[in-house]
Amino acid sequence: MKAIVDLSANIRLEIDDPKEMETLSKAIVLGNPRRTCVCGNTEGFYMTSNKDKEGNIYVNNKCPKCGARSKLGQYKTAGYFWHEFEQYIPKVQTKNEIPLPTEE
Questions:
Q1: Contacts of 63 (CB under 8 A, 6+ apart)
Q2: Alpha helix (H) ranges present in the chain?
Q3: What would the pLDDT profile of 51-79 be if each residue is shown by its tens digit?
Q4: Secondary structure (3-state) at 48
Q5: Degrees, nearest 5: CA angle 71-58-33
């Protein structure tokens, strides 16, 4: 079974899986990312992706107002889901966390 999902104005995804329920499940989850951000915004979201040092790939639905991301998650057994929106807040180093120079 095939399904076509428009993720954004620029991204159209074609899902082709021999199992009908798998196709429907992927199309429903991918076609319905979270639509309300933690800042209250409900429009203008866009898709991004990134890869970490271990090679894991992350797909995100990003808010244009505050920069928060809703990551696409994958269950271990099968299936996908969207995480709640989260804003990245860098950790602030305190004086105690800065390493002291070593004498050589």
A1: 37, 39, 41, 44, 45, 69, 85
A2: 20-31
A3: 999 998 899 999 999 999 999 998 888 88
A4: strand
A5: 35
